[in-house]
Amino acid sequence: MQIEKTDEAIKVRADFNEGGTINPIILKRGAKTFRVMQVNGRWEDREGLYRIFCFSLTVDSGDVFQVAFRPGEACWRLTCVAFQ
Amino acid sequence: MSAGNVLHSDIDAFFASVEQLLNPPLRGKPVIVGAGVIASCSYEARSHGLHAGMPIRDATRLCPGAVVIPGDRHVYASHAAKVFSALESFFPHVETHLDEAYCNMEGSGVPPEKLLEFGRRVRAEVMRRSGLSVTVGIGPGRMAAKIAGKTVKPGGVRAVSREELFEMMTPMPVGAIPGVGFATRRALEKFNVRTVGELRMMGAEALCAVFGVRGRKLYDLCRGIEKSACEEREIPGSISRETTFHVETSDSAEIEGMLFYLCERAGREARRLRLAASAVSVKVRFSDLRGDEKREVLDAPTQRDDVIFGAALSLLRRLLGRRANLRLVGVAISGFSRDSGGCQLDFFSHGGEQRRAALYRALDEIRGRHGHSAVVAGRSLGLLALLTRDCHGFVLRTPCLTK
């Protein structure tokens, strides 16, 4: 297994439920599209007062992606990839 | 037995368990978390003889298949918060530490015969809400609960009464008693005392003669008698910050910039806890792995970064007498007293202390709002070219996973 820390913009299609939960469905990294098979975990980080929503996702290739959503900027970042 | 009982919950192989939770292919594999030395390792890794504190170089030799992960403190803190929030749904008073919590069961109304069942229910709820396995111990005090849990690690539940605890502790080594570390163990060995049962044979007067006021506490603890309530937060012995350099260095600007950054982090933590430190110590390790440490007592307790740094810098200059590159630098502040908001004024000063204190309060507020990286002190500007930053500050080579 190879684990790679990164910090790059990534396109994410996600469900924002009324209860406040966010469920990522599809990730697009460069030209490649990945379907989210499982949300392994979700947690919150902070940048000062601002909340950052972090997710660990298993995608259809079997790799595990960690992504972070900053509501203030409405942007998603890919923070870590674990290749199988 | 339920009146005055304490429930102790400890997350099993905390950092490694979080990594296995977030990365399912790691489950069932030996996982090491840490940089330089093991901070935590999974039970699969422990079966190969690995343990916390072991150098990772030795660990990978013993267990070549192990996956090494540097770890991220903020991810772990967030998962610990989930565990603590699950515990708070059962108990009004939860005293939380890094990966363990003491819960006051007073008033919970759980009858003695149902304690085990209650512990299982708590464990299941924590597992449901956080995905993490915890070991639960229940007993008539903090020590009793912790010792009960230790006997059923990982993932077990155990409740003990005072009588059971007394029996259980008899053959245990004295190190099983909280607060008995290397120095106390060595002092007791001189009297041929190695187990709790042997310690009980020493009278209170003898223990007080050897250990002073701590002797009385030891006398009670080895009999399972405790007085500390579980919601009491004790003043920490010290607050320390240290790191290894990416490249060993003798550049004084880089070393002093890093020292200032570490002093800022320690000072900010002291202000957060409303503590004032009366001593500063600096630790260094050179490229040949030889290390040294010096300590200085301050004129008056402080929580100001500039005072801490002033003392630390003079200590550092005394330590850097060798012609060798520096591998590690660290600072620790200790001798805490509660900060009452006032400060010792200098007869000849013109209000500079208050202005400085206000400056640090303002800096803390800015950093609390925008992240620690929002302000970089002039002395640490050189680090900008050497280290990357995230919202929590500089990304150090060996970031501490617990602070």
Describe this structure in words.
- Helices cover 0% and strands 76% of the residues of chain A.
- By secondary structure, chain A is mainly β.
- With 403 residues, chain B is α+β, with helices and mostly antiparallel strands.
- Helices cover 38% and strands 20% of the residues of chain B.
- Chain B has 14 helices and 15 strands.
- Chain B has a five-stranded mixed β-sheet. In chain B, strands 9, 10, 11, 12 and 13 form a five-stranded antiparallel β-sheet that branches. Chain B has a three-stranded mixed β-sheet with strand order 3-2-4.
- Chains A and B meet through β4 and β5 of A and α1, α4 and α14 of B.
Which runs of chain A of at least 5 residues are low in confidence (pLDDT < 50)?
Answer: none
Morphology call of chain B: globular
Helices and strands of chain A: which structural class? mainly beta
State the share of residues found in helices of chain B, binned by percent: 25-40%
Low-confidence stretches of chain B: none
Number of strands of chain A: 7
Number of distinct helices of chain A: 0
Oligomer: heterodimer
* Radius of gyration over C-alpha positions of chain B, nearest whole angstrom: 23 Å
Number of E-type strands of chain B: 15
Q: Which terms summarize this structure?
A:
heterodimer; A: 84 residues; mainly beta; seven-stranded antiparallel sheet; 7 strands; 76% strand; globular; B: 403 residues; alpha+beta; five-stranded mixed sheet; five-stranded antiparallel sheet; 14 helices; 38% helix
Write the layout of secondary structure elements.
The complex is a heterodimer of chains A (84) and B (403).
Chain A: E1 2-9, E2 11-16, E3 22-29, E4 32-47, E5 50-59, E6 64-70, E7 75-83
Antiparallel strand pairs in A: 1-7, 2-3, 3-4, 4-5, 5-6, 6-7
Chain B: E1 6-11, H1 14-22, E2 31-33, E3 40-41, H2 43-46, H3 56-62, E4 67-69, H4 73-88, E5 94-96, E6 100-104, H5 115-130, E7 134-139, H6 142-150, E8 157-159, H7 162-169, H8 182-189, H9 196-200, H10 204-211, H11 213-221, E9 238-249, H12 252-272, E10 275-286, E11 291-302, H13 305-319, E12 326-334, E13 337-338, H14 352-370, E14 389-390, E15 393-394
Parallel strand pairs in B: 2-4, 7-8
Antiparallel strand pairs in B: 1-6, 1-7, 2-3, 5-6, 9-12, 10-11, 10-12, 10-13, 14-15
